[in-house]
Write a structure and sequence with these properties.
heterotrimer, A alpha+beta (249), B mainly alpha (257), C mainly alpha (527), B: 257 residues, mainly alpha, Helix Hairpins, Four Helix Bundle (Hemerythrin (Met), subunit A), 7 helices, 75% helix, globular, C: 527 residues, 18 helices, binds heme-A, binds dinuclear copper ion, binds copper (II) ion
Chain lengths: 249, 257, 527
Amino acid sequence: MTKTLKNALLGFVLAGLPGLAWAAPAATKKNDYAIDPAVGWDHLWNELLIDIMVIGVVFGIAAIYMLIKYRATSPDQVGSGPKFSNAQAWAWALIPAAIFMADDFFLSAKGWTLWNVYRRVPDNALEVKLMARQWQWEFDYGQGVVTNELTVPVGRPVVLRMTAEDVIHSFFMPGYRVKEDVMPGRVTYIWFLPNKPGKVVALCTEFCGTAHADMFTDVIAVPEAEFNAWLASKAKKADASPVPANRNS
Amino acid sequence: MANHSASHAGGAHAHHWEISTYPAIVAVGVLFLVPMAFSAWFVYHSLLLTVLFAGIGTPLVLWGVSGWIGEGMSHKALLPGVAVAGLPVFIISEVFIFLSIFASYWMMRLMADVWPPEGTPAMPFGLPIFMTVVLVTSSVTIHIAEEKQEKGDLAGFRSMLMLTIALGLVFLACTIYEYSHLLGIGFVPGTNAFSTVFYSLTGFHASHVLVGAAVFVAVLIPAFSGKTNLTFTKCAGIYWHFVDLVWFFVVSQVYFW
Amino acid sequence: MGALLKEWVFTTDHKRVGILYLIGSIAAFLVAGLMAMLMRLEQSTVGLNIATSPDDYNVWLYFHGAAMILGFLIPGLTGFFANFLIPLQIGARDVAFPRLNSFSVWLFWAGIVVALLTFVIPDKPDVMWTGYPPYSVKTLGNTAFYVFTVHLIGFSSILASINFIVTIIYMRAPGMGWNQMNMFVWCTFGAFIIQLVFVPVLAAAVTMLLFDKYLGTNFFNPAQGGDVLLYQNLFWFYSHPAVYVIFLPAVGILFDVIAAMGKNRVFNYKAAVYGGVFGIVLITGEVWVHHLYVAGMPDWLRIGQMVTTLLISVPVGLLVISLWGSLYRAAITFNTAMMYAAACLFLLLVGGLTGIPLAMTVLTVNLSETAFVHAHFHFVMALFAAFAMFAGVYFWFPKMTGRLADGPLATITFWMNLIGVNITFWPLFIIGFRGMPRRYYDYAMFPEFQPYHQVATVGALITGTAMALMVINWIWAAAKGKKAENGNPWRAKSLEWTHADCPAGPGNFPGPDPKLDADWTPYNYAK
Ligand code: HEA
Ligand code: HEA
Ligand code: CUA
Ligand SMILES: [Cu+2]
């Protein structure tokens, strides 16, 4: 084995190690359930943006520089790009590959960690059933309370158990950085943490026909006490009328 | 490795633009026969349009295919015998079509709570075994036919080829018999997930048997006037062995699992 | 005239078959581009705008997506370029199966005809280019036409793959070893392997769709034991690899253009081929779930395929290193082809790197199915791959027609194109990130996005004008352009330039069969 090849392999290992070093603790870290997934999302997004911007700027500047610098000065001029020995060729393949791989593993580990937060529903979550149909959302809180907007208490995690009647829809709340498909024959779920009172929009993001773009509704976060009062009054009304009040399709 | 058509070796002779009318004719025929006729019948429920499109498409396809085969028999390829290399490549893509149907079957079956689903009658036992024997025998006969052709025994070649075709037809007859029985007791493609897979797999395989037999007929007809093409026969043979092999998977998965 | 027409329609010559592909592919591009203009105009203000009903928009979008991918890029790259260039570049006089080749191109045209029928039939297909059931089964639109478009163009691709895989393996000129092939040949070889293996899966998937809708089978019907997600899995098992069927030949064109215009060897050729091309071929079948991140797949699949998806940046990165490296110590002359190639480098960075957040399962829960995705793939496909195609058309124009298409109009349309597409698609990253969904004719919930949509529309109009002028320029140049004075206007070293005429004639090489030395390469500018 030539010296350069040895160096290349060494470079491969050295470049790969930091990736693993980052990755290992990130993958094993205990998850803090109190964390708000949406906040984690924004944080990870910022890190990722830096990551890809660095790569983009480095390669972009390199391209501009070479496109300007290496213009032909005469029509007969030919290029003099390097011709590699075997070992150099290996080095130029393994080292960049290792660097790219390190970044990939780093991102994987980060992504996986946050993903676990997204998928593990806190025990105290309020459960709401969601039924989608062309072209309407229907939220079922139990006790006969069925609505077309989603009302949730601030500060308490909410989990949606979702299914559809006809075709595939997708429930998307950009404000809470979360979406998941809603389909017939299966139940999917998402959870989120309403952190302050107010309204955000929820939309359908799986093409479901003519009124796909009109299939949106409000998600209203209210203080917990207000929410409880609202739910109780709705439940009372539902008791009075045997048919769910909201079948307005 | 890099070898080249001997017919052109050192060939500085004049070239001209090569043409063939048949491929374009087949393509137009396919356009009418498949998308147009299918849509006319299943989407627009128009008997008139269906008959019209099929009436245009079918003769075009038959004319094109027979003309193409005729050319293929007589023309010299740029690289002689290259079709024998092309066919296995084609078979790779066929393997993946079958695999997708099998994969669908596995996904449905493994996700189901009960299998076979409600409405599935007991599957026959003897018939598939008989069909397997028929198909394996036909693989042997086509192999013998190839050997006879290589030795120049044209009469032997023809009779072995006819035997192979006959076995293929027996196989298809069994399929038709079984289908008519199952359809008769109400087991139709729409009955449940298993019927869907059952008819798709066996039907798709049977269509391959049909195509294989048709290709053999196309080899047989010129053979009566003494015209043969070993490359062509070899390709048809490889295809037939492949269809035979797939049957083992079909039979073991849908009848005996 | 009649004789000439006959010679073209029934041709089995790979160059003419290629040009037939090119004509069909540009036709698909123009009509699909026109649909894009209509969509941009519709989205330029909140509310129903130029469409009379949302269904109009859905039909435009269906046609735009399906025709751009199945009718423009794939046939343009693996139909036109592969046909026209591969036999010339490997020193063969035609492909292995010339009649099959003619059959492929006419099947493709049949597919284009079925696609165009969208505009005249009463129940226009509206299933988007992805055709997901149960919607595509339940819709009143004509899903059959979608299925048959895919079938015809798909089988055309399978036959072409067989033809070219055999041609590349068996028909190279005497003396041409594997490591002496053009990068374009290698990249396209990879693309054909991908097509051979994955197109059949797509064909099977849409066939099941057809059966479910018209014959009442239960593949995708959960009520009868079918699986709703089965179609999506099969579809993306093909359609993710399909993006590399587009990406690889496009990169191959860039390598050949950059090496020839930079008079330089390809930087670390073997790493690009065996690491880059084959790395992609190897991984591409294990990443399809990144299109189903929000479809309720099991977690282990989402995480596993996040890792494989991110790892695609390794083979792509090797190709990038070689591509960039080929500029190092080059002697670059800029013609129109080289300008497009240079622009491609930046478009590749933007498009590829914005694939990285999409590849991360957890970030995708906010970005999937938004305009962010739409900006990502327009950067890689509509900008990067399409620009690479334009680079190739300008570069090999003399080989096709004997004339040059370069000139002031070519330069002007290049700059208009580049500026126009950037104005169109950058705003979509921003609103996509903030929640603008895809496939929306209206965005009443986000009136604040209207200015962004309007900027995008202006950009699209600039692009549309430029594209139309560019095509007019090609047609004009083919008839009246400046003659290429010899067979080799760019003084390139690969076989199609050194051994064939401009335009290349029947039989490809006027002299005896090319024979190559052991140290010959298509890039041996400096010995
Ligand atoms: C030519 C077409 C093309 C190409 C090449 C790509 C390339 C990539 N794409 Fe894209 N993609 C599409 C066409 C394409 N895509 C289309 C059409 C859709 C939408 C389909 C639909 O729903 O209709 C889509 C959608 C899509 C999704 C699904 C989004 C969603 O619907 O939720 C994802 C998710 O992972 C994704 C990821 C990627 C990645 C990781 C790459 C990678 O291959 C990119 C690799 C390139 C780079 C990374 C840049 C260069 C490399 C370097 C400079 C080296 C160093 C880099 C690192 C270490 C990071 N794409
Ligand atoms: C190769 C692929 C490709 C290309 C080149 C393009 C090119 C363009 N695309 Fe497209 N696009 C897709 C592939 C592509 N697209 C896909 C796959 C989808 C997703 C579909 C889906 O969701 O299912 C999509 C979706 C898509 C949308 C999505 C809308 C939505 O989700 O609601 C929009 C909207 O702006 C858009 C715009 C554009 C624009 C402005 C261009 C411009 O670059 C176009 C340039 C303009 C022209 C080419 C016109 C030139 C010609 C004339 C003006 C005259 C015409 C003359 C005659 C016909 C004689 N595209
Ligand atoms: Cu519901 Cu889109
Ligand atoms: Cu993908």
